[in-house]
Design brief:
Strand content: under 5%
Shape: globular
Number of strands: 2
Distance between the termini: 43 Å
Largest sheet: 2 strands, antiparallel
Length: 241
């Protein structure tokens, strides 16, 4: 999938612009779709509203509307960043880590994730950290298949493409280096989940470090998408108990 033009040199993004571009694309590109859906959706899209605390402010969220918007907007976000990288003649396969891994590496990564999940469990038990009830209501609202498609398919692909794909590739060759890129992308990824309480955000940051390490170590975006999807599947499993 190498689209590098032999008549033009690759032009990496300025790291500051890469960060700004990521935040702009993530926050504003889905907005037109949200507004369109909201205006034409009717009662079906607005059913089962859930109040979510964001920075101490109570914000209504609509599971059907929000999940449908995510499913629609995520491919556009991925395409837009992919297109911008093509325009700069970047080697997409190398920059994004578009390669598979062996079953052994995949298994080892799942084991590492399992260790993290065990630590997460004891952390939550010791500090009495509970997943917000509003979040559980949100993901289990009907139709559940739409929430599953949004959180287990669309979100891992889109978020990993943005942070461990595009942004990581543009930061690791700067003075930050590999580990600086891992920490920076993990921090920014945590910031976009600001709706959660601080004790959960600490865990998300550590999980982001794990994802960044796997991306750095094995250079496979597919691997971290899979681990992210596995992590997002767990709330569904326990939510139905």
């Amino acid at each position: 999938m190498d689209t590098k033009n032999s008549h033009s040199d690759p032009k990496p993004f300025n790291p500051w612009w890469a960060v700004i571009l990521v935040l702009l694309v993530f926050n504003f590109l889905p907005l037109p779709f949200y507004l369109i859906l909201q205006s034409i959706g009717g009662d079906w899209l607005m059913q089962n509203p859930v109040e979510v605390e964001v920075l101490s402010f109570s914000t209504p969220m609509y599971p059907v509307l929000n999940n449908l918007n995510s499913v629609i907007a995520s491919p556009l976000i991925v395409w837009f960043l992919y297109w911008r990288m093509q325009k700069r003649n970047l080697n997409l396969s190398r920059e994004l880590g578009l390669q598979s891994v062996t079953a052994q590496i995949a298994g080892l990564s799942v084991i590492l994730y399992g260790i993290f999940a065990v630590i997460e469990h004891f952390y939550g038990t010791y500090f009495d950290v509970q997943m917000p009830e509003a979040f559980i209501q949100f993901i289990l609202s009907t139709p559940t298949w739409l929430a599953l498609l949004s959180l287990v398919v669309a979100a891992p692909i889109m978020e990993e493409f943005i942070f461990r794909g595009f942004l990581f590739s543009q930061l690791r060759n700067t003075r930050l280096g590999g580990w600086g890129a891992i920490i920076t992308t993990s921090f920014l990824w945590t910031v976009i989940h600001i709706q959660y309480e601080p004790m959960i955000l600490y865990l998300l940051f550590i999980f982001g470090i794990l994802l960044g390490y796997l991306r750095y170590k094995y250079n496979s975006l597919y691997l971290v998408i899979g681990i992210h999807a596995l992590n997002n599947t767990i709330p569904f499993i326990f939510g139905f108990e």
